[in-house]
Amino acid sequence: MPDANLVRRLDTTQVDFAAKLDALLAWNDEQNPEIEATVGAILRQVREGGDAALLSCTAQFDRWQPGSPAALEVSSEEQQAALQRIAPEYRAALERAAQRIRDYHQHQKVESWQYRDASGHLLGQQVRPLDRVGVYVPGGKAAYPSSVLMNVLPARVAGVPEVVLVAPSPDGVSNDLVLAAAAIAGVDRFLQVGGAQAVAALAYGTQSIPAVDKIVGPGNIYVATAKRMVFGRVGIDMIAGPSEILVVCDGGTDPHWVVMDLFSQAEHDEDAQALLISPDADYLDRVAAEIDRCLPEMARADIIRTSLRERGALIQVRDLDEAVQLINRIAPEHLELSVEDPQALLPAIRHAGAIFLGRDASEAMGDYCAGPNHVLPTAGTARFFSPLGVYDFQKRSSLIGPAPGAVADLARDAELLARGEGLEAHARSAACRIASE
Question: pTM of the full predicted structure?
Fold first, then answer.
């Protein structure tokens, strides 16, 4: 039976529109004391107990008992065997996606540089890859081979010499597509461990697992909380919230296409957010009717229904200029510009994780195989975060080499500024160089 009230309708002409939009966008990411306590205990347990604690946590949370730390590891031979087992069409799709992802991320590489200023001083930046990174791949409600490719390949392009992948294996069963993706991406180690305990192992190291320099990859609230708590000891990519999509349509796209795009994010979980903005009220009516028609056909209909009811909306705007204002206000993770001339809107868009241009640009293409990374900022953080990329796996060191015979100029300024800050040793350190010339 159609549910006319499933997805709320908003209109920018409503006097209380701003308040309603704020309420809709609000995401309660406050730290849950119970989750904090649980995760904190797991982190301490693994930090202090090492491999033994990791095995215990795996038995408790993933419902299988590894006989030894070695049992947690999936060998490269096992990964290659999975690559041979999967259907040829899946292997071909994974390999094509991997190549597109590599090609795209090659454009992001930053090289070291140097120059000499007017006084002859050498200045520059040395760029080096991180030594070792950890990649977390979810494995609870679904398997995500795409996350393997999106997180591992940029690290490889950056030149990271060692990549350690962790993924939970509920009941001790690993997903062949995930193993195959790991083989294609080329991980150095694959460990069947998940949750906060996996984050702890990567951050602190155990007797058999080396500590990493940075942890990347999505996960549930326990994983996100663990990443937040170990940040500082290791780097992290971001704290990701529920998945989001914002579709802007001028009314010219097949409503079925737009509904499937909205469903593509709503099916992730009940907290995902799917929004449609259009200046065409009749078009919004058609989309609402198509939602009612298509929803019963979906395998994850209950999840989609909850997501749309709790956090979804169809929003009417005066025109596409006002739509752009809302885009920048919302700063969505995924933005589809399903309009006749998306390039005309692009210059005014400041905040979005990934922007899909035109009616044919499905968000799902970006999720899997287009090339750009699908690890994106959520919950409005596209205002200051960027997609995961090669730059996340590189670090930069400044280079400063005073020119012989021209040291005094730099040293005098440094001495003056140091004395102005009241730091005597700094001043004398600079002054020594003046005397040496």
Answer: 0.92
